[in-house]
Each structure stands twice: as C-alpha cells, then as structure tokens.
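Hi all, long-time lurker, first post. I run a small reading group and we've been trying to get comfortable going from sequence to structure in the token notation. Rather than ask abstract questions, I figured I'd post a concrete chain and ask someone more experienced to write out its structure so we can walk through it together at our next meeting. Sequence below, copied exactly:
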Amino acid sequence: MSVVPAEVRTGAVRTVPEQARRAVELGPPARFGPSLAAVYRAQLSRARVARIPLLFVAVFQSVGIAVMMRGVVDGGPEAWAVVAGSSVLVVAYVALNLLSQYFGQLRASGGLDHYATLPVPPAAVVLGAAAAYASFTVPGTLVTALFGCALFGLPVSNLWVLLAVIPLAGAALSGVGAACGLLAPRPELATLLGQLGMSAALLLGVLPADRMPGLVRLARDLLPSTYGVEAYARTFGPHPDWAVVLADLGVCAGVGVISLAVATRAYRRAAVR
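-- Answer (accepted) --
Happy to help. Here is the structure in token form:
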C-alpha cells in the first residue's frame, strides 16, 4: 500500500476546483440573428409535413365564411370588412389556435428543456416558431382574398397590402397565441384559449363593425387582428387614406412587439421550471 505525500494531496485538492471551474465556463451566447434563422428553418421543416392539411382547413374555413356572408352582405364597406376579415382569419387560425397548441404541448412534454440547453436567446425561439407557422398562411391568405374579391366584385389592385398585413397581424396574434400556450398550466387549457381567441377573431373581425353594439365594438378594438382587417379593408375604397392605413399597421406592429415580449417572458418562466 503506497502512501501519498500530504503536499501532493493538497495540490490535487487545489487544482480540482480550478479545473472544474474552467470546465463549466461556456462560450459566448449565440447572436440573435443566426439563432432566429436556425430556429425558423428547424420549425419550418417540422411544420412542412402538416402544410397541406393546414392550408386546406384554414382556407376552407375562411372561404366558407365569405360565402355565408355573401347572402347577407351585398357590397360597399360591409363587403370590404367581410373580405378583409376572412383573409386575416387564415392568419388568426394559425397564430392563435395552432401556435397555442404547439407551445402548450411543448411545455407539457418537456420539449422546452431542449431549447433551454441551447445557447439560443428566448426571443429567437418564440419569434422563430411564430414566423415559421405564419409563413404557411401566406398562400392561404392570398387565395382567400382573391376569392373574396371575385365573390363581391372588389378590386385586387391593392392586394399587395397583404404583404404588410400578414407579418404584422401575424406577429401580434402569434405573440398572444404563444403566450397562451406557455402560460396555460395544461395543454388542454392552451387549446381552449387558442380556440376562443380564433372564435373572437372570426366573430369580431368578419362581421361589419357598424352592425355591432357598443360593447362588442370595444371588444373588437381590443383584438389585435382588427387593425390588420381595417388596414386591408380601407384599400378597397376609391381613394384610400394611406395615412390611416399606415396608422393601423403601426398599431399591429406595436401590439406585436408587446405580445412577443410577453411570450418571451412566459417562455423564460416556463423553461426554468
């Protein structure tokens, strides 16, 4: 049996903590831009499998609403609201319903632990997933808008406005949907909140505002997608007020920043549990 000198044991005790301290030192965190692109590509490839059913359900639902309202609304500003509301409804279906379900299931299954181990900013995870899901709404929104314009005889010259409405309204609604999924204690409750939000977007966004009572109009003004609907509906007029259109888009952008910040905070809270 060999005897280890005391000074050797002392030196070993002194070097082990130093080696352990160096081992736990991590590299610098990843930058936001590359992290966002990586999460976006990963989520895009994951959601690509369900793209066709997703587009079919969202478009079929929105087109069906437009056809149903055709028997009630003849034309004018009411037709503008129906076409704009049914088009933005495609975005609301994905951003509120599907995204809340996704984050609710991700939290319940422990999938957030995977992202928590990566040097990825929480905002990149939330925004990347929201952007990936919202990307699938672009074709469906355009198809619904074209069908609605043909159904009500509206011009399509300002259809390009949807290229601004989709990302801005999508960001505002995606933040709300992600926050519902991350804050709900159970995935079933997250699904319920997402469906309630989508129902609110359907009822308050598609129906003409002048036919609603005052209290319902107030609730409509609190819905983020309302301003995207208003921005697109105003472009159907013979002389659109582009300043008001930009103001509505600005409200969507502001609500999007706030809702995504809330969702990011909810992600941090759920990831450390």
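A couple of things your group might point at:
DSSP finds twelve helices and no strands in the chain.
Residues 7-16, 19-27 have pLDDT under 50 and may be disordered.
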